[in-house]
Amino acid sequence: MNTEALDDGTLRRWGVLVVEDDSRARAFFEASVQRSPRLFWLGSAGTVQEARGWLARTTTIPDVLLVDLGMPDGTGLDVIRDAVARFPGCEPLVVSVFGDEENVLASIEAGAVGYIHKDAAPEDIAQTIVEMKAGASPISPMIARRVLAKYRSLQSASLAPGMAASGAAPEAAFDENERGLLSTREHEVLTLIARGFSYAEIARLKGLSVHTVQTHIKNLYGKLAVHSKSEAVFEATRLGLLPHPG
Prior knowledge:
The protein is of the alpha/beta class. Helix content is 53%, strand content 13%. It folds into two domains: 128 residues, 3-Layer(aba) Sandwich (Rossmann fold); 71 residues, Orthogonal Bundle (Arc Repressor Mutant, subunit A), CATH 1.10.10.10. The strands form two sheets. A five-stranded parallel β-sheet has the order 2-1-3-6-7, sandwiched between helices. A two-stranded antiparallel sheet has the order 4-5. It is globular. It starts with 13 loop residues before the first strand and ends in an 8-residue tail after the last helix.
């Protein structure tokens, strides 16, 4: 996550690239971004080709990519991949009519930080962007429930054969799932969050920068479909990624 303030103490403004094929939705997003004192509009594209061309030509690093998935000449996933490959600091936020877990997970794997269903999109998308830049991973509740239900069903299916054969307790079988969902570093950070350590304390303990810790936490939010540290700990505990207290 980027810092909130510049060296002179003024709040940083984030540049936003809008990729949306529907002209009315595109104008709505542009207007919301332009009204926000924390954001500025970099440009817009209505096709995958236009977006990829913009990314290839620009000398301005986009802080945020606001992108739809269903495009007339392809998928917004390709735009996400291009954006994060060329500009690692760019944070994609998907706003799409697709609410199935396959598209959500594919977007997160491609590099998306948040995923909002169009039917549940807020009136002021700019505020959602600002919150995302502050460390949140916005995701529509309906989508979060679907993704977590999908993960739990896969988890249960993978646990059942091993438990039947070995008689192992459920807690003993979560290690493999844990490694599949979270990286080793992400799990270390999550464990320290659950113990109440601050970002700065985690950075000192692990020999990382605060920025890197914030990035790991942001990735955790995306994978767990949560918006805060308390939600992350709750969901991770429920999924078996953290031990139950006591």
